[in-house]
Amino acid sequence: MFAVPLTEDAQLRPLEPWQAEEFLAHIDRAREHVDPWVPWATRSTDLDSARAVLQRYADGQAADARRIYGIWLDGVLVGGMLFVSFDAASGNCEIGCWLEPAAEGRGLVTRAARLMIDWAFRERGMSRVEWVTAAHNVRSANVARRLGMSLDGVLRSAFPYRGQRHDNQVWSVLADEWP
């Protein structure tokens, strides 16, 4: 197992099925806040469903198609980062995040995203990293800006949520643009 420091009191670590109980407790604290952005937050309501979410990412990692990591602050799981998709053959991947309110405003997501983008480009030879967010999710769009991503465009009415359709912004950074 590895842990990458984000700050003196925060770490980025793999999030695995055996951590389902801790993951569920975190999602219970964060659900209302992250539900609009993280589709599986609503479905992770008991230990089996939480374990199933983490298992899907473990299976995805084994297939080199996706990954999930947790952000721990003072030893408590408070959020995470993921490769929503990871296609080494095409050189494209998408990263995403979620964070409970208690951990906001510390730069944890931006730091973790930088590490993941750097790894995708330098270690895996990816060509493009995307960040997709609901158009009204200002905090997420601000992270994309801080990462030096470009707004590629808006996918109109692309995201269904609770009976309404929302626009998605697609941001990206290319390998030759990454510092």
Could you characterize what this model shows?
The structure is a single chain. The protein is of the alpha+beta class. The protein contains four helices and eight strands, in the order E-E-H-H-E-E-E-H-E-H-E-E. The chain has helices at 20-34, 47-62, 108-122, 138-146, and strands at residues 4-7, 10-14, 67-73, 76-87, 92-99, 128-134, 150-161, 164-174. Strand 4 and strand 5 form a beta hairpin. Helix 1 (20-34) packs across helix 2 (47-62). The longest helix has 16 residues, at 47-62. The radius of gyration is 15 Å and the shape is globular.
Lay out the secondary structure.
Elements: E1 4-7, E2 10-14, H1 20-34, H2 47-62, E3 67-73, E4 76-87, E5 92-99, H3 108-122, E6 128-134, H4 138-146, E7 150-161, E8 164-174
Parallel strand pairs: 5-6
Antiparallel strand pairs: 1-2, 2-3, 3-4, 4-5, 6-8, 7-8
Provide the gyration radius in Å: 15 Å
Order of helices and strands: EEHHEEEHEHEE
| Mean pLDDT across every amino acid position | 95
Distance between the termini: 28 Å
Question: What quaternary form is this?
Answer: single chain
Annotation keywords:
eight-stranded mixed β-sheet, 179 residues, alpha+beta
Short summary of the structure?
By secondary structure, the chain is an alpha+beta fold. The protein has helices at 20-34, 47-62, 108-122, 138-146; strands at 4-7, 10-14, 67-73, 76-87, 92-99, 128-134, 150-161, 164-174. Strand 5, helix 3 (108-122) and strand 6 (128-134) form a beta-alpha-beta unit.
